[in-house]
Write the structure tokens for this entry.
Amino acid sequence: MEPLKRSIDGNSIQWQYYKDIELEELPYKYPMRSAVTMGAELRQIAAAVARGYPPLQLQPLRDEWVSIVGFGPSLNETWQQITHPCFTVSGAHDFLLERGITPDYHAECDGRDHKTKHLQKPTKQTTYLMATICNPKMWEQLEGCNVIRWHNANGKHIVDWIGENDPDTIMVAGGSVVGLSAIHIAGILGYRRFRLFGFDGNFRGNTRHAGQHYGPPQRTITRQAGGREWFTTPQMSNACDELMWLVRDNPELEINVVGTSLMTSIIEDSL
């Protein structure tokens, strides 16, 4: 499988960012599992499709830079450098709105209901790129907004359901965090030059976010990179590796991670 190719299987298109690689070759790879049951995932996907929102469409290549804004703690120091067009994920949506910046796009792909608390201020100026697995409460919050749906190809049961019930909608290869999915989606929309904000992958003090986060606590681990020890979580550590593979294996992409963090240290160590 070549990276960054649009592989077409029947009527479905799956965006591929990573080369085939054996999991045994990947250090610090922690097993992850969904916080939502398979049955609930499929029910939420079916309900989202039934809402009738238009599907994500493959777009021509674009030469401009795009800002993708995560909710890591460094965002408190770097948000004023953000330029349009910009994507937000998680709590970065309301964070930027509170500072006078309206996101052009916002992406979500989490089926849990606490994520609705990060989207208290939906706007008609933002395009919401919503995975069909998202919680029903989130879809209700976005009524009257510009919404585009996509499928998160996260598990055989989901891929099989999509193939049988909604084969024309793009499936997006996932990642350990929604920020990775947002990069994939931006690629589908034609972008190849990415400036990433709030992509830290580590704690600062007792927090791993730029503001209040409503998710459950996660196990803390340590990881060495850039000549120092960082406090992180298994999920964030996975995400650092995934972004590192993306940078390492796809030199045709331009990716600039703003700030100093575990994520930038892992990338620099790999080059």
